[in-house]
Structure formats: C-alpha cells, structure tokens
Write a structure and sequence with these properties.
This protein has 2 domains: about 250 residues, no CATH class; about 180 residues, no CATH class. Helix content is about 45%, strand content about 10%. The protein is of the alpha+beta class and about 575 residues long. The protein contains 19 helices and 13 strands. Helix 4 packs antiparallel against helix 17, helix 15 runs antiparallel to helix 19 and helix 18 crosses helix 19. The structure holds adenosine-5'-triphosphate (ATP) and manganese (II) ion. Manganese (II) ion (MN) binds next to loops. Belongs to the FAM20 family.
Amino acid sequence: MRYSRLRLRFSILFSLTTLILFFLLALHTLLWSTAELEPPEQALIRHKPPSDMPFWSAFHQPNVYDLQATDSNKLTNRSSSITRQRINELFELVRNARNNQVGSSNLKKDSDHNRKWSFGKFAGQKPQTGSNDTNTHTDTADSVGVQGAKSNIQSKFTATEKVTSEHDKIQLRYFILDALLKWKKQHMNDTTISLGDVMHDSLAQDEPERLNTTWFQYIKTITNFRVYDPNSSELKNVFKHLQHGAISEANEMSQGTQIKILLGLPNGLQGLLKPYRVPRNYQTQPDHFYFSDIERHHAEIAAFHVDKVLGFNRVPPLIGRFFNITSDIREKATAELAKTFFISPANNTCFRGHCSYYCDTSHAVCGKPGDFLEGSVQVLLPRPPEINWQKITHPYRRSYSAIKQVEWESNENFCYEHVMIDEDYHNRLLLDMMDLSAFDFLIGNLDRHHMMRINSLGTNTGLVHLDNGRSFGRYDSDDLSILTPIRQCCFFRYATFMRLYKIYHQGFSKLVADSLNAGEDLQTILVEEHLEALDRRLEILFAHLDTCMKKYEVTGVMINDGIY
Ligand SMILES: Nc1ncnc2c1ncn2[C@@H]1O[C@H](COP(=O)(O)OP(=O)(O)OP(=O)(O)O)[C@@H](O)[C@H]1O
Ligand SMILES: [Mn+2]
C-alpha cells in the first residue's frame, strides 16, 4: 500500500517536471526565433508604413522612406572613363594650342578649309530658324504653347530637310570660328558697363532717394560680365540684409509655376524667397518628369555656390535664411497671401499660396516645428520697365510633355542645322550657352527652358543664371543629355576650360563644401552624395571635351572669344 502511494507520488512529480521542462523549452525556442527573425529596431522600421514619411518629411529628420527608395536605384557606373593623367594632358594641349594660335582661324589644319564655301548660300537653302524671343514673351515652362513659333518651324524643317553633308559641317565650323574671332576683335576694347550707370539718370530724376541705398551701391557692381563682385563690401551688405534684414512686406510673385514670395527688405532691397519643401537627401521621384519636380531651396543655395566656385558669378546673390513664419511672413503678407494661412493638425503654421504647382493644402509650406521655417532668399534684380531683359528660348529646351520629344533628342546635326546657322549665335551667346550647359550638367538641372540676359547692358552681355530650384534632383545618376549642346556643337570657351582645370586640381567638391561652410548658416546644404556627384560630373565633362577635341582638333573646339 505504502509502496503504491509512493509510486503514484513519484509519477505525478515526474509528469509535472516533464511538463515544466517542456514548457520552458518551448518558451525558449519561441523567444529565440522571434529575436533572430526580428531584431527590435528593424521591426520598428518595417512596421512603419511609408505614409508615415511623406516625401516632404519632417525637417531635421532623415527621410527613411526616400533613403530606401534610393537603394533600389543604384548607379551602376560611378566613374567616368577619363583618367587624371588624360585630363592633365588635355590641359597641356589646350594651353599649347593657345600659345601657337596664329592667323584669323583657330584651326590648326587649314587644308580642309574651302574658302569659296559661302555661309549665305548655305543658310539660304535652309529655312530661317527665327530670331531670339524678347522680354514680351510670356510662355512659362509648362504652358501648352511653350514650343512657340520657333519650334513649329523646326518640326516642319525636319520633315523636308535633307541631312547636312560632312563637307558643309566642316565649312560651317570654320565659319563659326571666324565669326567669333571677328566678334572678339570688334569687342576687345569694350568698356565694362555698370547697371548703376545705366539706371542712374532716370533714378536721379524720378526717385533720387534710392541712389543712397545699399541696393543702389550693389546695383553699381552689376556689369555686363557678372551680377556681383565676389570680393566686394557691397556683396557683404546685400547678404547681411537678405539674411537678417527686417521684412516689411511679403507678397506672392506672380511669375513662375511654383511658390515664391517677394520680400520687402531694408535699404531699398527686395528678396525672392523660395521656402523649404523637401529634405536634403530627397531625390526626384523616379516617376516624376523634370517639369513636375518640386523646387528645392537648398538646390538654389548650392547652385549659387557652384556658380561662384566656377568663377561665373552669374547667379544673383542668394543666401539661406531662418524665418518665423508668423511674424516674418503671415503678419507682413498681403491680404491675398494671408488668406491662405492655416494651422495644421500637427500645430504648425502653414500657407498654401497661389501657383500652378504644389499650391494646395496637401502641399502647403509649413513651419517645422511650429513657426520655424527655412528658405533661400535671392536679391531681386531690376525688372521691366526699369531695365530691359532678353528672354531667349533655349534651343535645347526639353519638350515639357510626357509624350513628346524635341528635335535635338534625335537629330545629331541639330547644332549645325539650328544653332550655328542662326546669326543670333555668331557672338558670345554661343559660348555662354556652352558655359550654361556645363553648369547645368554639374548641378543636374534639366529645367533650363530659357536663357536670360540684361539687354540694357548692351550686346556684349552675359547670361544671368536664374532659376536653379530644380537642380540637384538626383545624386545617383548623371544626366548626360544636359551636355547635348557641348556634345553636338563641340565648341567651348577657352577661359572656362582653364578655370575648370584649376578647380579640378584644387578639388571641386571641396571648394564647394568650403564655400558653403563659409557663407551659409543653414546646415548640410549638399549631402555627401551630391558632393561626390560634382567631382564625378566634372570628369565626365572633361571626357566629353576630350572626345570633341579628338574629332575636331583642340583649336577647332576651344575658342578664346575674349570673355573671362
Ligand atoms: N532674382 C531675380 N531677379 C529678377 N527677376 C527674377 C529673379 N528670379 C526670377 N526672376 C523672374 O521671375 C521668373 C520666374 O522665376 P523662376 O524661374 O525662379 O520661377 P519658376 O517657378 O521656376 O518659373 P518657371 O516655372 O517659369 O521656371 C523668371 O523667369 C524671371 O523672369
Ligand atoms: Mn523654373
């Protein structure tokens, strides 16, 4: 009896122990497998729906969603095909060619030059391409009629025109080289024209008080060659006001397709504010065309510094600024703009504004957090009727349509048939356009629909590199099509090449990063990947110039038109 009770107790104890052991084992296996499959942090990210991070995600927050999107679009070829040694050789070749330059032609080998070939006769067989637009032109980038009269002519032209012969092309190149050399001789002794001198008399008569302002001191430093003097005290003063000056008025600018606010600033200055919209690591949405890309204030800032480092000085002074969206903008806004303000569910102050792209409640400009907003502020240059601008439709403009192509995209002779043949380009404009193509390629800007210059400064006047808000859209790819003018025309300004070489040697991205660090209060305007892209693209530009020089000789490509 005693024995059987003992056996019962023992078996109960045994089954209980087995049960506990089994339970402990199962618990351990369960915990272990969960831990391996799902480390806590990763689980957090995975379970966060992407909608938590909209593409204009919170300020100061890394945009995880965009970073992940970038991963799937890796650049396969991260380097150019040119070596440092070859770039050094190119520099020697270009320098020597300039020293040896003789006669009226830039070309070394004159044997191909048929002096009986007549431009007039050649051009006479071709339909007119039309002349430059004037500032009365009102197209916007996205309007339906953007192609204008010029492009209609171009498409008719393609249908009937036979391909330009190699002989004509070579003769046309000689003709262009001679034309630019003639232009250089005519303009060699041109004196520098200051916008201050141009505007002085009418201001003295109508608004003499404006002559004593910081604004006018700065206007005097604008010339036909550059829109600011990089080492001047006038530039420093302009920056001071753009960055810290009290705002007297905030009004929407009617021109353009995306939100821009005109700011009244002290001392006669006006600023053009483009507000923060997307984080620094934001990349253009893969399914967005360049014409629906959102404008970026940090791209405007970076483009200003790149242009300055390149020695162009053609982007009007621009700087980043912190705003209090309520006291700086809402309280100074015109009634029209003030009406569009609201407080978001997150308790941030926002405004919509009125414009054709991204001016609705779901794309509002919002302080983050609360009233805190950053933006870029550019000095507003005088506009008509005070001075005259020329708005030139870019011959290499894109179609601004999801379904249409334009001629230059498929016709490799486009430069010969539409640009070189057009006498509007038988002067500095041709090489100014090449400078712009180089600049746009480096900053990745596909949105150069027009070229702007100040007509009031005479005929020997450079382009003003306005509107760079859609640059720095992607760092993981380089859009070679932006170099099409250089690839198809194969002309380039000697002085620009020399500067590019010097910059290459000093380290392009380092110069840009230093310039940003020295001149900007806003942090990390260009993320590391964008800086790397600058160096990579500069090499690609050299590779394109190398190809041109192999094809047409150094002296048939590099032109010294006297512009520095
Ligand atoms: N700093 C400036 N000084 C004087 N005029 C300017 C300045 N910036 C821009 N503008 C004028 O305003 C127009 C519109 O500006 P901007 O091109 O930056 O806007 P946008 O919205 O990108 O326009 P679009 O959609 O036509 O490209 C310019 O074409 C130019 O005529
Ligand atoms: Mn634009």
